[in-house]
Amino acid sequence: MTSWGGETLVLRRDKPTGAWLIVALYSTRANGSGGGTRMRAYPDLSADLSAAVRDAQRLAEGMAAKFAICRLAFGGGKAVIALPSGFAERERPALLRRYGELVQSLGGRFVTAPDVGTSPADMDIIAETGAPYILARTEAAGGVGDSSGPTAVGVLAGIQATCAVALGDASLAGRRVLVQGAGSVGGRLLELLAEAGAKPLFSDVNPEAIALPRPSRLHVCRPRRHLRRRLRHLRPMRARLCPECRYHSAAPLPGGGRSRQQPARDSRGRRSPDSKGL
Asked: What is the fold of 8-141?
């Protein structure tokens, strides 16, 4: 924790469920901070909280960079609701209301919306105790609803911009595009890529996500091994996971504006002649 460059870290244990509520505020100097609320299980939560804390810290720092890139006067933040093994779903509404109380107690220093594991319907519940600092609620509650579609459009635009800079042509026609994670954003992105004439591939650690209906002729890559495929670009940026990655540049996560260009090489360090993959 001491190596983190952020401003505030809030930890609260939810005694009724054994979950931990973690809010990381990287910076609040510019009109407070904002970022999504992630909700997921951590198997060793009772013995080690560090993985959940690291997730909140790195995601908050990433949000700060995204706001800065977009020149928005807002600091980065992120929340993680870390669930213990065996968490009962019937406890979810009450847990979310207690989390809303935590957000409310920060007095506007943190504004949040859905992230992995949460939805607009969850935001409706959190807002019961956390308003007015809860965004992206359902349309029935006066919110914008699911933002995954617009987010996927933004990611597609980022990939096209990367192509324009790295390859001299924004067109995706005939290019191989590998998407890591086929959830609400990734799933819609796969559809958009197919519509743009690309040859999309995807990988996901969730068997249920793999089993969902997808565009025809869509190839599924096995987790971890997908990073060893010969590619031009990778979305999102995860080069550090695999030193043998062979791609030209990496498209950042939604909201980011950075891309890293590097020669595509094989496992022996030779440049790849392939220029049709992403």
From this structure: Rossmann fold (3.40.50)
Q: Fold identical between 8-141 and 148-261?
A: yes
What's the pLDDT score for residue 103?
98
pTM of the predicted protein model = 0.73
- pLDDT at site 276: 43
pLDDT tens-digit profile of 162-171? 999 988 999 9
**What is the sign of the dihedral through the CA atoms of 50, 37, 134 and 153?**
positive
Residues 37-49 have pLDDT tens digits of 999 999 888 778 9
Active-site choice (15, 78, 199, 276)? 78
In the residue annotation, 15 being an active-site residue is answered as: no
How many C-beta atoms surround the C-beta of residue 51 within 10 A? 13
Q: What are phi and psi of 161, to 5 degrees?
A: -65, -40
Q: Sign of dihedral through CA atoms 25, 156, 252, 161?
A: negative
Residue 266 has pLDDT above 50, yes or no: no
Task: Return the bridge partners of 80, or none.
Answer: 22, 38
Q: Letter for the amino acid at 44?
A: D
Rounded to whole angstroms, how far apart are CA atoms 2 and 143? 38
Q: What is the fold of 148-261? A: Rossmann fold (3.40.50)
What residue segments make up the domains of the chain, in order of their start? 8-141, 148-261
